[in-house]
């Protein structure tokens, strides 16, 4: 287990914003969220319907949540309770997801810090110290949206499905916009070692870098193998990769 | 990349043209399901050998016009909030005396498998076409349903930490080239989305109900399969109809 003791957590988080002409996705910005006043509605989206009762809430989350966590859990059980046990375990929120759910991803600064400190411990760097694999294999992984669905066969090879949310190689026009564009990712960052380490961390465990990021924790949640992550990394950082052309 | 925007605009326009072309009742195969549903509604079945015409969908026994626009709603006889599919199962069991096991097994149609539920939903929903979505939120249990639905919408989980709001939490987003409606609050997206179910899915050659839509969403969210006709699906439907209030139903619609 390697930890990034050399980095301050905040510097690590802000690193995501110091890079080039990339517009960060609103829900994915590594800026410390505003502290919330006791009865403020700051955590609510502006388009949220007005609460039916006056907000006499002691906490921002209470202003949002009109039902108890126990009630919601009972509904979850009634809805997914017949699924195989292993599948039910997948939707038991860990401490990080509990916090993200409670604040609908808009976590206060202290909780954001706690998430990053907790999650950075779950990042495992390759024993051989090599963070870049084969960009051609990475391109395939970025395009593959299979795996992890209850309809998938047991022997399905999981894909990273990066293109679902990100623009990558400029030649691929079918890309989603839930995440920021990653075109010229390595090139824009001068292929520096620090940026490579930062990106590996983000792919392995997004929550270690951007608390309540929309991005999956590909390494920590055992969705992609170490080799697959290395290959996707090469797709982002190899000067020969179409991402950097 | 302006040229790409133009390309998207062009393909969007083409898709719109295609939708317009197939959205009239004469060419939308969803209306075949409506016809089958009409016959099923009037068919005598179950140990009581009666039709579903005695079924109260909220506006009185056998009253169909506008009933779907007000579902899910609280039903006193069942002491529960139910969506259309839960209510139909209840009526089959309690009025017709029908063992619904087979109906549930055929809840989603497939090659060589017809679905009574899809046909019935198409027929009943069509009786509300042109009407506004009118969420029922007076009863405490109706309020709880919508509130829990909102919580479920934002609840993350599974190997990818996804929730409904991962995709539907911001305006103007896409997965690949597929536009995503914003459903974290009221607005046109919510109205248009909820006003378009049930729909005929061209890619699946089937009329699909909202139960199928949520089931498919959870599949893509990498969650376990939700139980058909379960409380969570009704909660989500209640929440979504709450933010879609006033949307004009055009059903069955037709989608890719």
From TrEMBL, chain A:
<protein>
    <recommendedName>
        <fullName>Cytochrome c domain-containing protein</fullName>
    </recommendedName>
</protein>
<feature type="domain" description="Cytochrome c">
    <location>
        <begin position="133"/>
        <end position="240"/>
    </location>
</feature>
<feature type="region of interest" description="Disordered">
    <location>
        <begin position="36"/>
        <end position="58"/>
    </location>
</feature>
<feature type="compositionally biased region" description="Low complexity">
    <location>
        <begin position="37"/>
        <end position="58"/>
    </location>
</feature>
<dbReference type="InterPro" id="IPR009056">
    <property type="entry name" value="Cyt_c-like_dom"/>
</dbReference>
<dbReference type="GO" id="GO:0046872">
    <property type="term" value="F:metal ion binding"/>
</dbReference>
<dbReference type="Pfam" id="PF00034">
    <property type="entry name" value="Cytochrom_C"/>
</dbReference>
<dbReference type="InterPro" id="IPR030999">
    <property type="entry name" value="Thiosulf_SoxX"/>
</dbReference>
<keyword id="KW-0349">Heme</keyword>
<keyword id="KW-0479">Metal-binding</keyword>
<keyword id="KW-0408">Iron</keyword>
<keyword id="KW-0732">Signal</keyword>
<dbReference type="InterPro" id="IPR016823">
    <property type="entry name" value="Thiosulf_SoxX_II"/>
</dbReference>
<dbReference type="InterPro" id="IPR036909">
    <property type="entry name" value="Cyt_c-like_dom_sf"/>
</dbReference>
<feature type="signal peptide">
    <location>
        <begin position="1"/>
        <end position="26"/>
    </location>
</feature>
<dbReference type="GO" id="GO:0009055">
    <property type="term" value="F:electron transfer activity"/>
</dbReference>
<dbReference type="GO" id="GO:0020037">
    <property type="term" value="F:heme binding"/>
</dbReference>
